[in-house]
Design brief:
Blueprint: E1 3-9, E2 20-26, H1 30-38, E3 43-44, H2 51-60, E4 67-76, E5 83-94, E6 97-101, E7 114-116, H3 126-135, E8 142-148, E9 151-152, E10 155-156, E11 165-175, H4 189-203, E12 207-211, H5 214-235, H6 244-254, E13 263-270, E14 273-283, E15 286-294, H7 304-318, E16 323-328, H8 332-335, E17 340-350, H9 353-382
Parallel strand pairs: 6-8, 15-16
Antiparallel strand pairs: 1-2, 2-4, 3-7, 4-5, 5-6, 5-7, 8-17, 9-10, 11-16, 11-17, 12-13, 13-14, 14-15
Length: 383
């Protein structure tokens, strides 16, 4: 493994008597990532920090000289030095700013560290450890991490509670093991409608299919991308999936020759005809729907997108998962399935005078926009 420097001790102001040590792995290969993750006791993670996800990002998004991927390993300073947490990071430039963020590139719906399940009551706060690490970085101006959810599995997200976090958005998630009585998400009318629509599709020879090999995953992704391109064109919308680097990312992830992959492709198929398709990313006890498409207009009356979401939730239950997430945004169709909203936050932490100046300018710009909207509203009211 290509480690940057030797192990360093984290100075923790909250508890000087306790300490963690950290070390940084630079530009890790997929085998190195897998070995590093295996060093944690049953790592708790989201689908967007798996070794395969990071590998695909590094292969397709991290251009030499522009963005550098590394993973920070936090370990106990005492005892057997067991690793407690991994923090994937990307360093790049945004104009004059040197920025540290989690590997995202618009492709991750949830950002968080990877935490050892052995961390029940750590001797030190992981949130304090992350804060101390960022404070030591002298080659950066700003920490900017968005899409922070409050939890990683059953554990607190150490980034969510950082000073400098601001409310960002909300996301919808279903607890697949919860529910009874009138509040049970399964009692939503959308599921009854989906079952009725699927029976009609089944009478036409349509069934649910899972892509289980790299070749099948790649073929299904190609069909999904083509359907999505056509649909977005009809709606007059820009399809971000048509960006070459974004397509390359999904093809890299789908084509990995390994059984343990977070990428799952589901489809409603009539023989060789794809009625609807979906890409899910799965890790631990969570699955997240990240891409969906519907086929020719002849199928639209059967609501194939709605049916496929319901079938994807069934798939998650059949595979023993606890959570089904709908990704970023609170679109109406997601709310119909009974997901509970979770607030997401964005971490903005200045590390230099330039970073502090940037945030002051940003805050002043937002304040000016708010005052302009207030003045505009008053003018309209008095007109």
């Amino acid at each position: 493994m290509t480690w940057l420097g030797s192990e360093q001790k984290l100075p923790l102001q909250s508890d000087p008597a306790s300490a963690l040590i950290f070390r940084e792995l630079e530009a890790p290969t997929l085998p190195e990532l897998e070995d590093l993750y295996a060093s944690l006791a049953a790592p708790v993670l989201t689908p967007f920090q798996t070794p395969q996800f990071l590998h695909a990002l590094q292969e397709t998004q991290c251009k030499p000289g522009e963005a550098a991927l590394s993973v920070i390993r936090f370990s106990e300073a005492e005892g057997n030095g067991a690793p407690l947490m991994l923090l994937p990071l990307v360093r790049n430039r945004r104009g004059p700013l040197r920025v540290i963020s989690l590997p995202d590139f618009g492709l991750a719906d949830q950002n968080a560290p990877v935490i050892s399940s052995a961390v029940q009551a750590p001797r030190v706060s992981l949130s304090d450890a992350v804060d101390a690490y960022f404070s030591m970085q002298e080659d950066a101006d700003l920490v900017d991490v968005n899409k922070l959810h409050p939890h990683v599995g059953k554990m607190d997200n150490p980034l969510y509670s950082q000073a400098g976090c601001v409310p960002e958005s909300k996301t919808l998630t279903i607890d697949l093991q919860a529910g009874a009585g009138e509040t049970d998400w399964r009692r939503k009318s959308v599921y009854k409608k989906a079952r009725s629509k699927f029976r009609k599709l089944a009478e036409l020879g349509v069934d649910v299919s899972e892509a289980s090999t790299p070749e099948e995953r790649l073929a299904l992704f190609s069909a999904l991308a083509a359907q999505r391109k056509k649909r977005f064109y009809q709606l007059g919308r820009v399809d971000s999936l048509q960006r070459a680097e974004r397509t390359a990312f999904y093809r890299c992830l789908a084509g990995l020759q390994m059984a343990d992959t977070p990428y799952t492709g589901l489809a409603l198929k009539q023989g060789g005809d794809i009625v609807a398709a979906m890409v899910l990313l799965r890790a631990g006890d969570q699955a997240t729907g990240v891409l969906v498409s519907i086929g020719d207009e002849q199928w639209h009356g059967y609501s194939p997108g709605m049916v496929l979401f319901a079938k994807a939730i069934d798939w998650a239950i059949d595979n023993g998962l606890r959570w089904f997430a709908f990704g970023t945004g609170e679109q109406d169709y997601k709310q119909r399935f009974g997901g509970c909203p979770q607030e997401t936050r964005r971490l903005l932490k200045p590390l230099s005078a330039r970073g502090r100046l940037f945030l002051r300018a940003r805050d002043a710009h937002h304040t000016a926009q708010e005052l302009f909207q207030i003045a505009l509203g008053r003018n309209k009211a008095s007109a």
